[in-house]
């Protein structure tokens, strides 16, 4: 790979990072490709070099987040009796390290654009299948119910984070320093 190729890849990642932040802060409709370009320090046509539309950019941000989740859930190693907890910790780690992306993915179903809704439906189906498969392989009782509850808990975490209601889901209290909590109990991330 040439240095020009590496620079281009880095810029693409910077665009995705900036887009994730802006989409998380402003929402899908208020985020523009012009704002994303400005945040990265490039021109809007440069953003369109990688992503032909705002929707394509949004889907790319979501896809990167889905891949992070799938990798985290499939690469976790734990004995069956600790698998759910260990996978839950992997999700929390993703939320800490890639907060905007993970919150976007967990809330993407609220965006009414048909292509985004369909992509989100397909990806959540895939995540469910992977989680259920992990629980089945581990020999957990009722893997379908456990997979549904596991994903539901992830949605609850995302909702409590998005609405800044930490008392709904108290996962951050287990290790406050790791999650940047202040005395007030709100996240500093």
TrEMBL record:
Annotated InterPro entries: DNA-bd_HTH_TetR-type_CS, Homeodomain-like_sf, HTH-type_TetR-like_transc_reg, HTH_TetR
GO molecular function: DNA-binding transcription factor activity; transcription cis-regulatory region binding
Source organism superkingdom: Bacteria
Domain HTH tetR-type: 9-69
DNA-binding segment(s): 32-51
Gene3D superfamilies assigned to the protein according to its UniProt record, in alphabetical order: Tetracycline Repressor, domain 2
Annotated PROSITE patterns: HTH_TETR_1 (PS01081), HTH_TETR_2 (PS50977)
Keyword annotations of the record: DNA-binding, Transcription, Transcription regulation
UniProt-listed PANTHER family: HTH-TYPE TRANSCRIPTIONAL REGULATOR BETI, HTH-TYPE TRANSCRIPTIONAL REGULATOR RUTR
Protein name in the entry: TetR/AcrR family transcriptional regulator
Protein source organism: Paenibacillus rhizovicinus
Lineage of origin: Bacteria, Bacillati, Bacillota, Bacilli, Bacillales
């Amino acid at each position: 790979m040439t240095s020009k190729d590496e620079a281009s890849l880095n810029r693409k990642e910077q665009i995705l990072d900036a887009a994730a932040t802006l989409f998380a802060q402003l929402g899908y409709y208020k985020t523009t490709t012009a704002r994303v370009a400005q945040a990265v320090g490039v021109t809007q046509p440069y953003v369109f070099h990688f992503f032909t539309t705002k929707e394509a950019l949004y889907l790319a941000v979501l896809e990167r987040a889905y891949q992070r989740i799938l990798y985290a859930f499939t690469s976790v190693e734990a004995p069956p009796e600790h698998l759910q907890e260990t996978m839950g910790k992997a999700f929390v780690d993703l939320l800490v390290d890639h907060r905007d992306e993970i919150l976007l993915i967990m809330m993407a179903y609220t965006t009414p654009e048909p292509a985004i809704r369909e992509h989100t439906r397909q990806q959540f189906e895939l995540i469910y299948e992977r989680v259920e498969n992990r629980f089945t392989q581990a020999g957990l009782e009722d893997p379908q119910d456990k997979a549904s509850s596991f994903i539901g808990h992830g949605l609850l975490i995302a909702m409590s984070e998005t609405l800044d209601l930490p008392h709904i889901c108290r996962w951050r209290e287990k290790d406050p320093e790791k999650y940047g909590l202040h005395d007030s109990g709100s996240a500093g991330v």
